Amino acid sequence: MRIAIVTFDGFNELDSFIALGMLNRLRGLGWQAEIAGSAPQLTSMNGVGISSQQPLEFANDAEVVLFGSGIKTREVVADAATLARLKLDPARQLIGAQCSGTLLMARLGLLGSLPACTDLITKPWVQEAGAHVVDAPFHAEGNLATAGGCLASQYLASWVMLRLAGEAAAKEALHYVAPVGEKDSYVARLLSVVLPFVTQPQGTTV
């Protein structure tokens, strides 16, 4: 299971790293989440420097593509050359985004009239791009999902796990990362948000 965490310069660490860490809990099932960066070296919004694990084009062949947010997203969506590097297909890929990453999905023509989640700062830009923004932490229809708020990355990761690994494997992975003393309640809360949007039989592929 190839998972691309699409990441650009100025990225939000919480968006990229939380999803990556949670999804790699299923490495034993053959899952591999990697940073697919727009450049070999990237610097986060808080000055953390990283090396991309894969080029941006890795997202085109991955089974799962997740867009995080960042302080330069509006610059990214204004760069036609960068957008042209992404050739995604929701018919064969799970594609999700959070916060300003939702703006990328909108500009790539993936959202259409679907309800979309994002952060409050990005909301007017996503609306300008033609998306219908809803006041919710997570929404998914078919193979597309969006989330709003930095910590909403946990919902995107949970959605991917539930869709492609099934509820039992998802619960095990989520239980591992949950805070001690809150594990059962934490997992139950995540599932209460995401499970209503999981329409495919659990454990099936895209």
TrEMBL record:
Keywords: Glutamine amidotransferase. The keyword Secreted does not apply. Residues 1-155 form the DJ-1/PfpI domain. This is Glutamine amidotransferase.
